[in-house]
Design a protein that fits this description.
Elements: E1 2-3, E2 22-30, H1 42-55, E3 59-67, H2 76-90, E4 94-99, H3 109-121, E5 125-128, E6 133-134, H4 137-167, E7 180-184, H5 187-191, E8 197-201, H6 206-219, H7 223-231, H8 235-238, H9 245-253, H10 282-297, E9 312-313, E10 323-328, E11 335-340, E12 357-359, H11 360-379, H12 386-397, H13 400-431, H14 437-462, H15 473-487, H16 492-502, E13 503-512, E14 515-522, H17 524-537
Parallel strand pairs: 2-3, 2-4, 4-5, 9-13
Antiparallel strand pairs: 1-3, 5-6, 7-8, 10-11, 11-12, 13-14
């Protein structure tokens, strides 16, 4: 914001007293910095507005500028302009608002009308250089409507271009993600529909991006620890970015690093492969997502003394609240238990002040034994059995019922579409007077019944259990070996890391003094590995 004050009039003439002068407040706006090279640049707008105000003999007051879309009413400098108008008019000064074009004030009709009414009520005129000065309410409202419609159409064109670009496998042009840079497209790429600039690796930053994902995915470091490591990297490694904690989370969540475009609502690895080099392998990227999601399921265990804090739930079917570890006991004899935390929910708890407790050692040992038994099967596979294991692994990924469900969904969709096509043909025949009204109605009624039945069939099979995405077998076996070692190491933080990958919840039901029946709810990956172990074991032992 630049403030310009004048004590003289234009062309060196002495100005009259301030009370008799009109103060011109100039507002300029562009949506993006890139527009500076176009005819609506900030400098061009400012020069036009200043010359216009000078020709009117007005004092150049404060100048305001925003680099923000005109569809937003919360533009800081726009709001500052209105606040200054109110202040000056409150002091009794004459004021005029000057813009290069009325659409610079904004592209929302309602806000334009509201602001114009407010300014008129204060006796402040709005002057547009390119529209010839002060314009009538009718012209102003028409231009505001045109600006809003132009903004809508521009947004549609931008979205259409972006969608087309993504569907062809190209990354939309904008600020390059960390680890990438823009280069000129080759003639061959341009022939394939590429934009002028295409995404490529930034060799200086790419290794640090890969290490960032590795630290988040595998090292067990908290996001804040990784952020502190990033802060000490040289600027070239960060490509000049600050990379704070929120920026880091955004980077790790971005699908560009596995060569997939941003397509909300579509599962990441069902999206088309982009035409730029992936920086991170799918397995590492997925593990990094799971790490970020972890805190949503499992709270941190500050003391590191209790294995199942965050996993274990109250077994009372009316309660189901989380349980937390605690120690107590008279005469120095410590008793370690998990205690229901329903009181933290206050009066909204399903069971107020639920008294449920379970013994730590009995439940911890049962859960570790349960998970270890799965890992033991997977890590003890005879090499000669690997062909059979790979066959069973493929069967787990594509179970017959899942394939049958997909086939039935496709058939139901085809039946419904054929019925709609028959209705369209019947409509054409009726319009051409080749069939009568009664025959047309009967035909439509029959086909509607087919569509209803087909839609019901489609929904029924959509509810069938889908195929489960599996990690690569070699990757799963390698991770299972590491998990097995961690479980047997009697290191609670390491064990909790393993459980976070494989277990979502635990419930313990008392069956005797110091004895419990333990139920384990597995994560999707844990469920897959458990099924694989059951198949290899030959006798399922699921819970």
């Amino acid at each position: 914001m630049v403030a310009v004050h004048a004590e003289r009039g234009v062309r060196g003439r002495m100005a009259p007293m301030v009370g008799t002068l009109t103060t011109a407040l100039i507002y300029t706006r562009v949506s993006r910095e890139e527009q500076a090279k176009d005819g609506i640049s900030l400098d061009a707008q400012l020069a036009e507005s200043r010359r216009y105000a000078a020709r009117q003999g007005w004092v150049l007051g404060t100048e305001y500028q925003d680099v923000m879309t005109g569809t937003r009413d919360d533009r800081p400098q726009y709001q500052a302009l209105l606040a200054e108008v109110r202040r000056l008019r409150g002091e009794g000064q004459a004021v005029a608002v000057v813009v290069a074009a009325l659409d610079r004030l904004g592209r929302k009709l309602l806000e334009r009308v509201r602001a114009r009414d407010e300014l008129k009520a204060m006796g402040v005129a709005t002057h547009s250089v390119r529209e010839g000065g002060e314009v009538s309410d009718l012209v102003s409202n028409i231009l505001a409507s045109v600006a809003q419609e132009e903004s809508r159409r521009l947004g549609e064109r931008v979205r259409a271009v972006r969608t087309h670009m993504i569907s062809n496998g190209w990354h939309p042009v904008g600020r390059a993600p960390w680890g990438y840079l823009w280069r000129d497209a080759t003639e061959e790429e341009r022939a394939q529909g590429a934009p002028k600039k295409v995404l490529d690796l930034d060799e200086a930053a790419a290794p640090y991006v890969r290490e960032t994902f590795a630290r988040v995915a595998d090292s067990g470091e908290a996001v804040r620890q990784v952020t502190r490591w990033l802060m000490h990297l040289p600027p070239s490694a960060r490509a000049g970015r600050a990379l704070g904690i929120f920026a880091l989370r955004h980077v790790v969540r971005a699908t560009v690093y596995v060569g997939r475009p941003e397509m909300p609502g579509v599962e990441v690895f069902h999206r088309p492969q982009g035409r730029w080099p992936a920086l991170v392998d799918p397995d590492t990227w997925q593990r990094a997502q799971e790490r970020l999601d972890l805190h949503r399921r499992i709270p941190r265990q500050a003391s590191g003394a209790y294995l199942l804090t965050g996993f274990i739930r109250c077994s009372d079917p009316r309660c189901g609240a989380r349980m937390q570890g605690y120690s107590s006991g008279p005469n120095g004899r410590t008793k370690r238990r998990y205690r229901c935390q329903s009181e933290r929910q206050g009066a909204s708890a399903a069971v107020v002040a639920c008294p449920a407790t379970v013994m730590v050692s009995a439940v911890d040992d049962a859960v570790v034994d349960r998970v270890s038994s799965v890992m033991a099967v997977l890590t003890a596979i005879d090499p000669e059995m690997m062909p059979m294991v790979r066959k069973e692994w493929r069967a787990l990924e594509h179970p017959p019922q899942a394939a049958d469900a997909q086939r039935r969904v496709r058939q139901a969709e085809a039946d419904a579409e054929q019925a709609r096509a028959r209705i369209r043909r019947a409509t054409d025949l009726y319009v051409d007077e080749k069939i009568g009204k009664n025959g047309y109605d009967d035909k439509c009624e029959r086909e509607r019944a087919v569509i209803v039945q087909a839609d019901a069939e489609r929904l029924r099979w959509l509810d069938a259990k889908p195929a489960r995405p599996l990690p690569l077998l070699d990757v799963a076996l390698r991770r299972a070996g590491g998990w097995d070692k961690a479980l047997r190491a009697f290191d609670v933080p390491a064990q909790r890391t393993v459980l976070a990958e494989l277990v979502s919840a635990v419930r313990a039901y008392r069956v005797g003094i110091g004895k419990y029946r333990v139920e384990v709810d597995w994560t999707p990956e844990g469920e897959v590995l458990r099924d694989a172990a059951d198949t290899l074991r030959g006798a399922p032992t699921r819970v």
